[in-house]
Every structure is written in C-alpha cells, then in structure tokens.
Amino acid sequence: MPISGRDPRGMREAWACPGGSRPVGGPRTAARRRAAGTGLAGRSLLYGLLAGLLAPCAAAAQDDDDALAEQGQRLYEQQCALCHGSAGEGRPPAVPALRDNERLGLAARTVRFIRQGAASMPPFPALTAAEVAALASHVRTAWTNDFGSVTTGEVADVLDGLADGSETASVWDGVFTEAQAARGRDVYTGACGLCHGRRLNGAPDDPDMRSTPPLARARFLREWEGRSLAVLLAFTRLTMPEDNPGSLTDAEYVDVIAYMLSVGRMPAGGGEIPTDSGRLAEIVIGRER
Ligand code: HEC
Ligand code: HEC
Known about the structure:
Blueprint: H1 9-14, H2 28-36, H3 45-79, H4 81-84, H5 107-116, H6 129-141, H7 152-158, E1 169-170, H8 178-191, H9 193-196, H10 217-224, H11 229-239, H12 250-263, H13 277-280, E2 283-284
Helix pairs in contact: 2-3, 3-6, 5-6, 6-7, 8-12, 11-12
The chain binds heme C (2 copies).
C-alpha cells in the first residue's frame, strides 16, 4: 500500500479519517491548511509518513470543502446577490455590505439573519441546516472576509429544533384574489407604470425614458425563479419606486405583486397575498405550475 501521494478514490473509503466522517461544513480552513501540507514534507521521515497517511483524508476533506463552497456560492448568487451584490458590496444605505463587515464575525448572529431575516431582510425558512451552513460559510470566507466557516451542527445549535426546510407553495397555486389584483393595478398605474410600462414589459410609456426590467411573464420569471415572494416584497420595498423607495404601504406593495402575477397569467384564488414576511417566504416563484 502506498504511503505517500494521493490514493485512488476507492482506497480512501477504506481509511478511517481522524475524527470520523465530518459533517458538511466542517473545519474547512484547518482542512485546507492540512491539505496544502506546506512544510511537512522533507522535514523529517516521521512527518513525511504522517503526511502520506493523512493525504487521503485531506483529499476527501478537500472534495467536501469544494462541494460546500460551490453550494454556498450558488445559493448566494440565487438568493442574496440581488440585494447584497455579487462582490458583497450591498446597496448602501438600504442594504449593508457583507464584504469587510465585522458583524459577520459573530457566527450565531449571521446564521439567524440568514434563516430568520430581519425588519427589512426576508427570512429563508425553506433552507436546510446544511444550506444555511453553506451560505454562512460562504459569506464569512468570500471576497476579503476571513471569519471562518460554520458547520451544520453549529447551525442546528443556534436554531434549536430547526425543521429541515418548511413546506412551500407556488405562485401558480392561486395565492391572490381578483380584487387584490385590481387594487394593485391602480397602485401600479400611479407608482410604477411610468417606468415599467403599461404592459409591464419594461418599455416605458414615455419613449424618451430609459427601459427598465419587465415585471411579468417569461423574462421576469426566468430572473426570479426560485426566489420567494418575501424576497420580492423586501427588494421592491427597499428599492422601488426607484425615485422614492419605500413610499408605499406593505399592503400596497403586495397588491402590486398580485397584479404582476395576474398579468403573468397566474390564477387567482380564494385568499389574498399576506404582508407577513414569514408566510410570504413560503410562496415560491416558479416558471410554470
Ligand atoms: C431583499 C433584499 C435582501 C436579500 C435578498 C437578502 N438580504 Fe441580507 N440583508 C438585507 C437588509 C436590508 C439587511 C439589514 C437588515 C437589518 O439590519 O434590519 C440585511 C442584513 C444581512 C446580514 C447582517 C449584516 C449586518 O451588517 O448586520 C447578513 C449576514 C445577511 N443579510 C445575509 C444575507 C444572505 C446570506 C442572504 C441570502 C440567503 C441575504 N442576506 C438576502 C437585505 C437582503
Ligand atoms: C423612476 C423609475 C421607476 C419606478 C417609478 C419604478 N421602478 Fe422598478 N425599476 C426601475 C429600474 C431602473 C430598475 C432596474 C434597477 C436595477 O437594475 O438596479 C427597476 C427594477 C425593478 C425590479 C427588479 C426587476 C428585475 O428583474 O431586476 C422590480 C421588481 C421593480 N423594479 C418593481 C417596481 C415596482 C413594483 C414599482 C412601483 C411600486 C416600481 N418598480 C417603480 C425603475 C423604476
């Protein structure tokens, strides 16, 4: 059996790595340092042997780390970059930057923000503990941040009794009423139509004005797929109308959202879209029913 160099995949499984199988999101920086192995080789025969013995574990840990980092990055791009920016720059003053943000040094606080949201940040109740760990690890180690990763176990400790992902509904399930969409149409005409266009396609009514993103149909759905109505409400309230953000009531914002869905041919149902962000977080935007 070789004692140095990387073993083929199958062989790793025969080894009991120190510490047993690591939970997702384990001590990744430590594993990186071990995997890098700088200075170990050549110092002494003993060190060389040790490095050889640990190499398969370090390599396996490296694979886990890479998968976790990839998952964290992907989730961040889909759910967070909209507000916090691809480079963690935020949208000051409405949305704080996450890059070089000392408050992310507080692991438990970061975990709670991600899962439960805050006054102006939407909650993400459908994320599993492993996904929250991947996201927390990502924002704490991406860009120039160096706060270390967070394990699934740590996430579970913070959010005691956390259920693994809550039930979600789709915007195609009849989540608004005809009356709500009709009210939303009036609000839209007064507060949004000038820029987003009478047909919600992003072509402003005034041809001299620059175009804006569409707020209904295929292109909108492609952009927003997988995000919840809590994210849509929070984003819209924080940034729109562009010339006067936050100027509508929550009820008016969700009425406009009902109108946007109705223009996108989603069916009306028996109840209105609520303003409560916890319940909104359970309604997910999907491209089709
Ligand atoms: C709709 C916009 C929006 C989205 C989407 C969003 N956030 Fe936030 N986030 C905010 C706002 C606004 C705050 C400040 C909230 C407050 O302090 O009340 C915030 C605060 C935070 C904080 C605390 C920062 C600090 O300085 O205290 C963290 C951590 C965070 N967000 C992470 C995330 C992650 C991770 C995601 C994706 C899963 C995400 N956010 C998605 C708007 C958003
Ligand atoms: C003064 C012009 C203006 C007004 C009024 C306005 N918007 Fe916007 N809206 C924009 C622009 C410009 C963008 C693109 C911003 C960007 O990319 O950062 C945008 C982006 C958006 C987006 C994000 C779309 C996407 O897929 O990126 C939503 C949602 C939105 N607006 C909703 C609304 C709603 C709802 C209203 C009315 C309450 C409204 N806007 C009023 C100019 C406006």
